[in-house]
Amino acid sequence: MTIKTPIGYTTRDDIFVRDRNIATEILGQLDFIDMIFLAATGQTPSAPMKRMANTLMVAVTDHGLTPSAIAARLTILGAPESIQGAVAAGLLGAGNHFLGTMQLSAQMLKDAVAGLAPDADGAAFDACAAALVREYRSGKRIVPGIGHPIHIKGDPRVPALRRVAGECGFEGRHWQLATAIERAAQAEYGKLLPLNAAGAVGACVADMGLDPLWARGFALIGRSAGLVAHLLDEKRAPLGQKLWDLVLAQDDSAELAGHDNPIPQRAAALRKA
Amino acid sequence: MTIKTPIGYTTRDDIFVRDRNIATEILGQLDFIDMIFLAATGQTPSAPMKRMANTLMVAVTDHGLTPSAIAARLTILGAPESIQGAVAAGLLGAGNHFLGTMQLSAQMLKDAVAGLAPDADGAAFDACAAALVREYRSGKRIVPGIGHPIHIKGDPRVPALRRVAGECGFEGRHWQLATAIERAAQAEYGKLLPLNAAGAVGACVADMGLDPLWARGFALIGRSAGLVAHLLDEKRAPLGQKLWDLVLAQDDSAELAGHDNPIPQRAAALRKA
Amino acid sequence: MTIKTPIGYTTRDDIFVRDRNIATEILGQLDFIDMIFLAATGQTPSAPMKRMANTLMVAVTDHGLTPSAIAARLTILGAPESIQGAVAAGLLGAGNHFLGTMQLSAQMLKDAVAGLAPDADGAAFDACAAALVREYRSGKRIVPGIGHPIHIKGDPRVPALRRVAGECGFEGRHWQLATAIERAAQAEYGKLLPLNAAGAVGACVADMGLDPLWARGFALIGRSAGLVAHLLDEKRAPLGQKLWDLVLAQDDSAELAGHDNPIPQRAAALRKA
Amino acid sequence: MTIKTPIGYTTRDDIFVRDRNIATEILGQLDFIDMIFLAATGQTPSAPMKRMANTLMVAVTDHGLTPSAIAARLTILGAPESIQGAVAAGLLGAGNHFLGTMQLSAQMLKDAVAGLAPDADGAAFDACAAALVREYRSGKRIVPGIGHPIHIKGDPRVPALRRVAGECGFEGRHWQLATAIERAAQAEYGKLLPLNAAGAVGACVADMGLDPLWARGFALIGRSAGLVAHLLDEKRAPLGQKLWDLVLAQDDSAELAGHDNPIPQRAAALRKA
Question: What DSSP element (H or E) covers C236?
Fold first, then answer.
């Protein structure tokens, strides 16, 4: 038994990734998206696959002070010696509730579509969607990919992702089911729970024919870039201490607890810190 | 005092990254490399900058069962519920010794070149290099970016990276110093300590005019993709348990410790595990 | 709305944990186990609770080159600047398959016992256990807490944990069910799948009346100590590079791939590395 | 060459830690603090060593909404499936600036005291301290272990730790130097920069004769317990989403950027989220 992986290996003189020589067959010839697919599958992607993958990673790169960005900035505040630790802390929040939801959505859509007949019509998709929504509701679980706390009238990324999916040939049966689920959820709950970016990414990954784990993979690669951007910005204009001060300053525990505590002085000291 | 970042923010209807609307000005129009630079700097990269960045991330994506890949595979063995945890575990090894060395190399080259006169000639670069090598040696520190345990005659990625750097206009004064350091180290130590991939990436990043932190950033983004590839491969053909068994099977502690231990049975049991 | 936690807060002159002044009411008066319970619940533990908690954390501290210890040692090899990164990498493997299984076991036992009548007799426990085993088997899931790849005749920690549980008054209905599950599994699968340490810890935590999350909590606190021990040992006698070499040396990929590769030289170079 | 560690190993029937059988010689006989020392050194601690270690870990367990606790709570918000990921995220901030400072302080004190004559008098300690403070200042570095943003008149943990150190016989030359450094810093900077908890822990660890790495080790073990307490509290009364909302609510980016954005509605939507 030899432990090896088809991904690659190293000799004294050469490095091979998927049996291609990195010096003579990869560097300068493949771009990073090609390399992601080469490493993971042994093949470079088709042009539409590549455009879609680019778009998915762009969609998740960053959008400001998200929990993962805040966690990364608070981590570098305590451990400035470890950039990788701050990136890791940020990625650890990419789980079943945020970002990782993309994998759950892709898996749910893939499983459900696999159960539909090849010639299933719109009514069959609607019935499937209604059954899914009811099943999740009865299990007191949230259907992955719908609803958003801020974008209550609709997630602006969804139509953009759908347009690119259409142009690339990946607006297929999984997108059809995702749309039916949005309708079914509105009927079931009596209010709009719009398809969100996680649901749209899930539909794209499923219609690309990729393993649902790719959805979380794209999210992690994309977000790692967003976190690097935050850490470069943190170096330029640190927010970590201010974020902590913001939490401390709104808490008047000491007074409530009956202690004679000079909150204003404390807040002032904190703001100068 | 408001805590905000120029990277981006979200409103009820829109998401902005560097003041561009993600739905109408980003998705479908920028690729992932554009987005990395947009998020981090507010600007998309020039064509040469983009090609160079692609090449650097390709160079670090993966090359088989490295310590970070092994750590990720052992982590998913214990915690299959958390893909992000396994990626984070792999990235945590991208420190000052592996991958993060790229940042140390870029910083060293940047600082040293900043001390050279604009019209410094080859002799001045050689003198600077010799001084650097002696300074590190006297401090019993390793010069970042030279020497390799496997590629003892030369790291195959270095000429490839240099060729692309030349084509993109980034084979400048930092590359010149890196080459001088390789020569100076050979003179100082009496043996070839070839410029390695970390040194080459450091030279590229410095000649691109980017903050040295970008070198570790490219390494983390690139390696996150390599780790996703390993986790997809681990799902297809698990190696985690085999890697652990390999460690256990070579250790006959029990017998050495004087216990009556049926190692062959143990090894057999492990292999079946 | 104020964001605060009953765990503690800080004023200019004082620090309070669960409303006790750390300087005058905690330091020097409480030991670490007291403090774990104080921070988490607001109360110090009874003597039996404390002895049991000590024993559970001792049980999980360490037992050699486990996947989490290997991951930590490979991580410090690449990132010697970050002790916390190596500990974090080791803890990330404490998931549903290793260590975290303790939480799954405690939860399963708690839920099942909650469904038994207060006067349930042995036959009722056996019926409950048999139903659980069949339910997991039909779902192609492993019952948490039974079976072990190495300790095929029985996990040596189980009787020791049971003895301490008995002495402390925590060998109750959850232990009774755990034992019944071991029997039911043997009947169902036709071979011994002994109760393992995870199952025993799960039974203890459930019989202590603690939230099942405590089981994973004890595992993480205990293992963090084991990982610190490994990192101190790694500083004294480094194994990280040897562990990597072990993986590389058993892989003759290059030859299999048809390249003219001097494996012996490579292996030799690696061993010197 | 066999890869093994004296920490422990497993056979089919037994588990050994430092050559003690875990079932018959450890479980039920050693408490967790004994086990920490046994795993790390092969010996159980003396009574004073044990009391001191307990006190150091108690000192770092928790004191409310620190950056590491906030990072852990934001991480579990996104990844509720991974308790270990949230603990890991919290520990990743235990670096050179927070908590890890304890190691830096212990190392600095150990190195400096090693350079003092065995019969050095108070004047020699003062001279050594003054030289250290000036050296750090000229290198624009902060002396580890002094100053605090909140406890500007003195860290309440310091006298308590010193009292216990005295009772345990660990208030020795490193404490003497730490105190001299506090005086020297006041003279050098013209204001009180009081010895803080990190400095006090560093002095204790150095006077205990332990490797400075133990200081960060105690911090990581202690804080892992504090983080488990926060995650149990987060399950009872979630703060993660509120912490994120707090950050979002104070940022009026959209209006400043000139967009027609209904901030109040957004804030309301967030608060309901």
Answer: helix C213-236
